[in-house]
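Crash report, auto-generated. Payload:
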Amino acid sequence: MDTQLKPVIAGYIPLLDSAVLVAASRMGFAEREGIALKLVRETSWANIRDRIAVGHFDVAHMLAPMPIAASLNLTSLAVPTLAPMLLGLGGNAITVSAALWAGMASAGADAGGDPASTGAALAKVIQERRSKGHAPLRFGVVHPFSCHAYELRYWLAAAGIDPDDDVELNVLAPQLMADALAESQLDGYCVGEPWNTAAVVAGTGRIATYKQAIWPDSPEKVLGVTRKWAETQPDVLAALLRALSAAADWCADVGNAETLAELLSGPDYLACPIEICRPALTGQMRFGKNTTRLISDFLTFTGGAKAAPAGAYGDWLFEQMVRWGQASPSEDARSEVRKVFSPSIYRSALALTDALSEPAFRLFDDV
Amino acid sequence: MPAAVAAPQHKCCITNGSAHNGGMSGGLSILVIDDNKIRASIIEQGLRDAGHERVILVHQMEGLVRQIADINPDVIVIDLENPNRDQLEHMFQVSRAVRRPIAMFVDKSDSHSIEAAVDAGVSAYIVDGLKRERVKPILDMAISRFRAFSKLAEELEEARTELADRKTVDRAKGILMKSKGLSEQEAYDLLRRTAMNQNRKIIDVAQSLVIASGLLGE
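Recovered output after restart:
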């Protein structure tokens, strides 16, 4: 290893949206910015949180709400954490068991994943189950402070389903979801790719709807960094952000999708069949046995201005925390959240000088 | 109530001690969740030696909510490799089956313990309200046993590598002896000299030779 390179250790969870970190480390983008980026695969978000808190990791692949939860002291081993860059937009889906999908389809669920239609169908199934005295349906999410939890809850609530009373919500590691569905321990789950496709390919699950349909172009994973590290290593962080931005642009090029699929499915990263990595990377999504759809922005990687965090994203995530009783609203908390999702570090690292504009966003049930 | 949902394959063995020796730390029940049965046994032994009789080992997560409700542990020790930590923490927050709220073991001010635990690859949780003095020795024990286990595993790995290296060097020597008509000592000297001249390790030269020889069909 070139001793002139600055070492940076990054923790990540094996998911398709670790792509930007993997590409930066393996395709030369980090070296070009003078960084030796070493990736450490982790088995739980709790480990990511703990190991960044004790300084094992300089930076990490994090669920977008994690830096907020850490900065607001809502989890154990919480240390002030920043989200200086978005590592991916979209990429999640809500998958239900084949049996549940059969019920939803009879209740009129849209085969193409329209959230309003599939939600309404699920509400009918739940009503019918209740009238028959059946146990509540069980859904899985990867973490209480995750976009998965908020998307699932938002989708359920929009259809008049109370996520805390009408269904049972469990937490389970992403790579275990498809098996839990196959074994009828879960009736559905919200997870990042490739763990929806895994169930579709196995024939045990059907994608009911997806993040890009629920909240288009919304952040999913972010680069997480403790405020302390950001303050003590500003130059290294800036160089890392430039490297990640270039890596994200490379990942976004559909011409690189096959190389990326090969890299990510390899034994050092996801260690899974390459077939389940391709759909989200190419946009050729398979929702069920006979339904495929081209959704080119299902999972988006992007460098440049689009990868900048924005206060508005943080606001929405914090609103969900308040809505579901995880956080108490306060002006202090809101201003802290805005600092966590501030675009300034990223913009200055990339020397972005265009006028700062808050991203326009719209949820599926906005009228 | 969230059920513990987990991958299949589970076993649990309850190994409650029979005799109560009235040790100073007696009375606490400790649940050890670890997929690695050998390491779990090492921790169990350590805790028993320290006078803890109620040590319960769980290797899998299925049905864990029920088990935790039944066992009602004061302390839970879990290895960091376990992919179910997020599930476990969520369960502590929301489960009505687990009677008392359970918090992260180490308190925030004790950063030394936190670091030591994470370094060693272990995490622990206690029920709310337990005195730190009572649980600190348990965490210390878990940390030292995890470390001892890692050291053992490293040594084993080193021994394996060493053995494999020796075999490769032997094969390289064999190739040189056969192709150049050298004695074993001469073959070894040639490997060593080549390594020195190229500023490489003997094992690397031997490896290259074995691979090259394989490619050339010996």
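Post-recovery validation: Residues 1-26 of chain B have pLDDT under 50 and may be disordered.
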